[in-house]
Amino acid sequence: MLGHIARRLGHQMSNGLKGMNLPHVLTKETHRHLQSPFDTICPVSMMSLWPFSGKPQDFSQPNSSWSPEMVRLYEHYNALCDAENENGEKKRGPWRKLPSYDRTIKYATGGVHLSKLVQAKARLFTRCIEEEGAAFEYVAFLNKVEKTCVCVFQAGHLLEGAPGHLHGGAIATMIDTVTGTLAGYLSGPVMTAYLNTNYRSPVPLGSVLLIHCALDRIEGKKIFVNCKVTSSDESKLHTEAAALFVSINIGPLFGTQS
Amino acid sequence: MLGHIARRLGHQMSNGLKGMNLPHVLTKETHRHLQSPFDTICPVSMMSLWPFSGKPQDFSQPNSSWSPEMVRLYEHYNALCDAENENGEKKRGPWRKLPSYDRTIKYATGGVHLSKLVQAKARLFTRCIEEEGAAFEYVAFLNKVEKTCVCVFQAGHLLEGAPGHLHGGAIATMIDTVTGTLAGYLSGPVMTAYLNTNYRSPVPLGSVLLIHCALDRIEGKKIFVNCKVTSSDESKLHTEAAALFVSINIGPLFGTQS
């Protein structure tokens, strides 16, 4: 259970400001799991951390808005998650599909600036539009051995910049999300320090893209991640980016002592 | 009329991929106006360029979701748009409020990649959420003499990254939008080449921010713009950015010869 929760938390934490240390809520043992989300299942129940009723919806599951190309790529990477060993037995490979929810867990005091009403309505930016296919459709896979992350992203019609084309800010949003996901998994809670984005060619709305992220290096608290956004067949480079994330704890973020 | 349409077009063009040359639709005379959107009114009616019924809604007008601070800043900059001369007469100063619509005008073949159905549903990314106050509430003012642009931005609850805080991608989206607006007004249709964003301190959801953009330099087709995002009283620096835009024509964007 904890393994599941930890993976969920780990992914949520890697969105936006990429999570935080959880000194007020989590035990040391739990925190160790958060920083190693691939660890085996822990018997400690942590369901009370999830503040909403029912099981959260994983928005990175296929839906009817996904184009055949999107589904094909999803199935390709999903198949890599269950590899077989030489005896033909199922065995977990280095790849993991990352779930994706529409809310960061209220595990910390993050809503302190908001009224109770607004806290309840707050949604993760990349999952805030409910209509399937209208905005960000994406699913991310992480390779813990190669320290890479690949995201299959279908750009919906509400993400328009120039007529018929994807807004540069929407591309930056996905790059920040995916690079941050990788950095968060490798180093625990992180925050974006910089994001340098080079736009090479415009992206038609409706396109399916691959967002490839790879760890460049870790220097102390600094995690450097590189990123390329290509067409789904990888023949066309649309965007390149370099991002720096910094490991943080919750203190500075919420104005309390760390 | 044309002056109005040209300003409208000019602002729309400066969003996302920041507009384009319009060889197939616009006359040379019209195009001159697009590149000089502050010119006086031209007698030629261009209403046929607007493909939707009725007058488009300017989403940068105050609404009930705007906080008192947002309204105060709006009124401050709006007052600068109507300056008085020494005789106490109303006189247009260097400041202009820029209107903001939820769709780029279908003046070109931008929807060529989309089905007719999706073309009709496509919306500008920063204006795609209808609920007032939920996402991007903003109004931009441009100073043609100083070659600067300032945007008052209220961050809604659907733009969440870490709990209670603005997503880094949402900040990048606004920076791309406002720096591109300035570049587009100064040099006609442009496209983002790079956007380098440094995140200095996290932004609580619900904050009102000022996004200050200033022309750095123009080198041929390259327009370099700097940007700072601060708290509404300008005491706190949240984000710094440098952007490069390149003047374009419509050809390369849509795969036709320029």
Automatic annotation (TrEMBL), chains A, B:
It is an enzyme of class 3 (hydrolase). PANTHER family: ACYL-COENZYME A THIOESTERASE THEM4. Coiled coil: none annotated. GO terms for cellular component: mitochondrial inner membrane; mitochondrial intermembrane space; ruffle membrane. Residues 164-235 form the Thioesterase domain. Belongs to the THEM4/THEM5 thioesterase family. The lineage of its organism: Eukaryota, Metazoa, Chordata, Craniata, Vertebrata. Its main location: membrane. It catalyses: (5Z,8Z,11Z,14Z)-eicosatetraenoyl-CoA + H2O = (5Z,8Z,11Z,14Z)-eicosatetraenoate + CoA + H(+); hexadecanoyl-CoA + H2O = hexadecanoate + CoA + H(+); octanoyl-CoA + H2O = octanoate + CoA + H(+); decanoyl-CoA + H2O = decanoate + CoA + H(+). It holds the Pfam family 4HBT. InterPro entries: HotDog_dom_sf, THEM4/THEM5_acyl-CoA_thioest, Thioestr_dom. GO terms for molecular function: hydrolase activity. It is found in: Cell projection, Ruffle membrane; Cytoplasm; Mitochondrion inner membrane; Mitochondrion intermembrane space. Keywords: Apoptosis, Cell membrane, Cell projection, Cytoplasm, Fatty acid metabolism, Hydrolase, Lipid metabolism, Membrane, Mitochondrion, Mitochondrion inner membrane, Transit peptide. Its EC number is 3.1.2.2. Gene3D superfamilies: Hotdog Thioesterase (3.10.129.10). One of its GO terms (biological process) is apoptotic process. This is Acyl-coenzyme A thioesterase THEM4.
